[in-house]
Amino acid sequence: MPSEQSVVLVDAADSALTVSWPASSAEGASYELQFRTTADGEATFQTLSSTLKSPQARKKNLKPGTCYEFRVRAAAGDDNGEWITHDSPFATLTTAQEADRMAAPTAEGDGNRAAIVSWDAKDGAAGYELQMRENVGGASWSTVAAKLSNTEVRKKNLDNVAGYQFRVRRADDSEAPFSLASSAVVGPTLGWEMRHLFRELDDGVLLKGTKEISLDDALAGKDIVLLYASAHWCGPCRQFTPQLANWYRSIKAKPEGKKVEVVFLSADHDERSFLQYYETQPWLAVPYDADAREGLMGHIRVSGIPRLCVLDGQTGRILEDNAVGKPMDVNRWKAMASK
Predict the structure, then answer these.
(1) 3-state secondary structure (DSSP) of residue 286
(2) I need a surface site. Which of 62, 191, 242, 303 has the fewest CB within 10 A?
């Protein structure tokens, strides 16, 4: 395991190595990075760069199947820090290993401080080893699971705001190379604006069918949130709700549906009517006895129902006052949110 002050290997290819090291706390610091091959007894370090601003670099045009050493030091003004290196050499992949390695996994934020990590199946693989690292200077890889049978996993508790990278390899061959690292993904969190909007929510929970779900797990990472004010006693509502439900199921079957959610605000006269009506709905709901129900209806100024108010899921800003009878176009709403 690399020490706290150590150069770490982020990725190895047959002609390149990506390395990282702990960031300097000095303001305006830059880094000098040097490397050398361990082949043929060569002992002289060559400078890759002396003006790096990021604590990570990729050295290209290396020889396949060759071991290299790196060292780095920070510089702030006229002061140079101590050289940081690593215990064991870093090796590029052989040409055969490069041809056999898996493609980089895909990582996408999914709910409160979580991400879905997926990858393409490898022919003949009996399982997969998945590793992750924080996307910060000097962070090393750690194993999430030594043997997964599926090609997708949901990783929770992603707290670092700098994000995380993932890599994968077949689990039945300890010599198999790891894939390229995924792009960094940040576990979504619920913005303070949306949290403030739902501040009167009892215990911070919404309903999801007959179960409860925390506000953070329900809405973190959503781009679009629709507040649906409706009631069973309202004829136009009973006509519109099945149409909205069909749209909801359709959008949820698509990739963009992960970033969209509907929250029901009941205008029924009692909790029993609310529960009977909510049984026909596939989305979330504010509990009938929660102060947030009337608070949210007041916020969007409900004067008649059905009312479908479209919010920017990141800021809580109203994008469309009432989408009932209008095109249900998620891309149009996202474009409005970006302005």
Answers:
(1) coil
(2) 303
Q: What is the dihedral of CA 210, 215, 220, 224, to 10 degrees?
A: 70
> Rounded to whole angstroms, how far apart are CA atoms 167 and 143?
10
Residue 151 burial (CB count, 10 A): 15
What does the pLDDT look like over 28-41, one tens digit per residue? 889 999 999 987 66
User: Could you give phi then psi for residue 302, rounded to 5 degrees?
Assistant: -70, 120
Q: Which residues of 55-85 are buried (b: 16+ CB within 10 A; e: fewer)?
A: bbbebeebeeebebbbbbbbbeeeeebeebb
Query: Rounded to whole angstroms, how far apart are CA atoms 105 and 179?
Result: 8
Q: What is the pLDDT of residue 17?
A: 97
Give dist(CA 326, CA 208) in Å, integer: 26
Q: What long-range pairs does 48-57 form, CB within 8 A, spacing at least 24?
A: 50/75, 54/137, 55/20, 55/21, 55/22, 55/23, 55/24, 55/31, 55/136, 55/137, 55/138, 56/10, 56/18, 56/19, 56/20, 56/21, 56/137, 57/18, 57/19, 57/20, 57/33
Contact 22, 14 (CB under 8 A): no
77-96 per-position pLDDT tens digit: 767 889 999 999 999 999 99
Q: For residue range 162-195, list pLDDT tens digits in order.
A: 999 999 999 998 899 999 999 999 999 999 999 9
